[in-house]
Design brief:
The protein has 81 residues and is mainly alpha-helical. The chain has a domain at 3-36. Helices cover 68% and strands 0% of the residues. It is built from four helices and no strands. It is elongated and about 70 Å long.
Length: 81
């Protein structure tokens, strides 16, 4: 919905509502919005859905390699200091 449409809607319909009616409208919008922006699935719903290994690499191998690379990077940065 374009901003001008929202602005027109507000000016023509909402601006003239009483405070209690505006509050009721806000509560309705807030309730509707919270339903629309709920986060995705719970982890329990998708656990085990991907085949192993997902990226073609064993998780422990990936962690070990990431640690080796991190150690190497730290060692090289100490040499250049």
């Amino acid at each position: 919905m374009a901003t001008s449409t929202i602005s027109n809607l507000y000016k023509q319909h909402i601006k003239n509502l009483s405070a209690s009616e505006m509050e009721e409208l806000i509560n309705l919008i807030q309730s509707d919005l919270s339903q629309k922006i709920k986060t995705g699935r719970r982890w329990e719903e998708i656990a085990g859905a991907a085949s192993y290994p997902l990226a073609g690499e064993d998780a422990q191998q990936w962690v070990s390699e990431a640690r080796r690379e991190g150690d190497l990077g730290r060692q090289q940065s100490q040499v250049y200091r």
